[in-house]
Amino acid sequence: MKNLIKVMSFNTFIPIFYPALMLPLRTFRKKAIGMLNFKAGDKVLIPGVGTGHDLPFIPEDVEVEGIDISDVMLGIGKVKLKALSPNRKINFVKMDAEKMEYKDATFDKAVLSLFLTVVFDPKAAMTEIVRVMKPGAEILVYDHLLSKNTVTSAISKPIDSVLSYGFTNPARTLEDCIDGLPLSVIKTLPGDPVGFMKGYLLIRS
Ligand SMILES: C[S@@+](CC[C@H](N)C(=O)[O-])C[C@H]1O[C@@H](n2cnc3c(N)ncnc32)[C@H](O)[C@@H]1O
Fold first, then answer.
1. Topology of domain 2-204, per CATH?
2. Which end of the chain is more exposed for a tag (fewer CB within 10 A), N or C?
3. Is residue 118 in contact with ligand 1, taking CB distance under 6 Å?
4. Is the distance from the beta carbon of residue 108 to the nearest atom of ligand 1 less than 6 Å?
């Protein structure tokens, strides 16, 4: 049910106001994605690619698979790419990140921007992402995840239970999303001027 409402949200009202929300974050997003050590020919996975806000900060000499469950977000992403970077080839695919069709150890890098606070089951999605990443692969998380046991976490919980039906889960923590998985957090950067968003660089062991 929650997943159905999320699919509906990301196929209806969210694509309308999303660009205005994302614009002020551009420089922070760029710095966060800049933590990844891209190499020519890398295979890069973007789960929940949406309309492609990460793409301008990813080099053109890598192969990108952008997956999403929303036809509308993917459709806008394809139109934007054609208009802004007509020579760039990005594979936009409709796929659920909780059950991906890729083989084990396919990707060198992943970019998860505003994805872990949206996906229905973040632990299931992270487990799948770990499965399809090569050992030593880098994962960039750019999101408004909380630290465990903070006051904000207590305040966010009631808000979370309401908003989670629509489009976001503000009470999630990175620790819970990656608990027990072969992932280490290597570096963290601020992701906005007030410290709500953060960039995290993770390595898959
Ligand atoms: C807040 S948007 C972020 C889009 C993009 N990453 C960005 O930073 O602008 C979250 C995206 O995740 C997608 N999404 C949610 N659950 C998903 C799932 N299980 N598999 C793939 N995509 C999912 C939504 O449809 C939406 O496009």
1. Rossmann fold (3.40.50)
2. N
3. yes
4. no
